[in-house]
Every structure is written in structure tokens, then in C-alpha cells.
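Q: Predict the bound structure with adenosine monophosphate.
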Amino acid sequence: MINLVLFGPPGAGKGTQSEKLIHKYGFVHISTGDLFRWHTKNDTPLGRRVKEIMNSGLLVPDEITIAMLKEELDKNPNAKGFLFDGFPRTVPQAEALDKFMKDNGTAIHYVIALDVTEEEVRNRIAKRRTIDNRADDEEDKLNKRINEYFTKTIHVLPYYESQKRLNTVHGIGEVDQIFKSLCEIIKT
Ligand code: AMP
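A: Predicted complex:
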């Protein structure tokens, strides 16, 4: 069993790389963003609780996020491995994830951060804006999500770094080259 956490700001290419990793390694993909979107789309009680927060681009409180993640883990007792995408985003989430893994007799084997600077992410999004003609509120939300990453989520990296568990891959360049770098880490 291999469990992996893929880290990176919005616009870093996490979605693209996750897809390729799942295809190659058969991970069960756990994207808390996708799960929250499913709940809001289906108007579940959880969806109703988080809709406003998500619309504002802010992070959902840990208590709600961690409970949802635990439920998802419990639904997949026979998984060959998990790829966590968009989770953890805070230190309490990272601690909870370690505990859940330990309780199941496993661990997070790889934590990989796609290293893309705030400047690069903002440039990519500015470029995309000229092509997509996105609505202003979408822009505003995206800006908030980037702020949430660089003010909150980035503090999870020292948690893993201090335990010598953090791998960093340069996230700017060709998709296939970045994928190759990810696979080299997983092979080790
Ligand atoms: P994403 O698609 O991963 O960027 O997630 C979309 C939105 O879902 C985020 O802007 C947050 O509001 C919420 N969300 C997703 N994952 C988390 C998480 N691990 N902790 C808190 N909020 C989250």
C-alpha cells in the first residue's frame, strides 16, 4: 500500500498530475474539494453547511473536513493506496491524517509539494483570464483561494519538513517532465 499527499496552490497542476498518478499507480483519489462540491451539488446537509464558505473561497473548518475525510477512508477499506489531493490544508488536518493512517496500520509514505511561486500562479491565472473571460466574482474567489493557500496551507509544509517527510518537485515546465519527477520520488 502506498499513500501519497500531493500539495500545491490552485493553478499548480495538481489536478492534471493526480489523474496521471491514479492511472499509473491505481490510487483511490480523495479530493476534499471534489467531495465538498458533490455535497453542495446534491444539496446534502453537509453541502448546505459548507456552501457559503466555499463560495467565499475560504477554508471549511477542520472539524467538518476531517469528519468527511474519515468517512471517505472508511468507505474504501480495500484501497491499494490513497492519493490525497487538497488535504491536509492545516496542521490539525495533517495530524488527523497521520492518526487515521496509523490506526489502520499504515502511513503516509510520500508527501510531494508542487513548487510553484505565488507570482507564477497569479501570472498563470492572469493569462487564463484573458482567454476565459471569467466573471469577476469567480476571480475574487480564486484570489481568496490563492490567499488561503499562501497564508494558511503553506504552514503545513514545515510540519512534514521537520519530520524529513517532504519532497518538493519544481512545478513549472512540461506536464510529462513534472510527472516523471513525481514518479522518481515514488519509486524510491
Ligand atoms: P479545491 O478544489 O481543493 O481547491 O477545494 C475547493 C474548496 O473546498 C476550497 O476553496 C475550500 O473551501 C474547500 N476545501 C477543500 N479541501 C479543503 C480542506 N482540506 N480544508 C478546508 N477546506 C477545504
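A: The mean pLDDT is 92.
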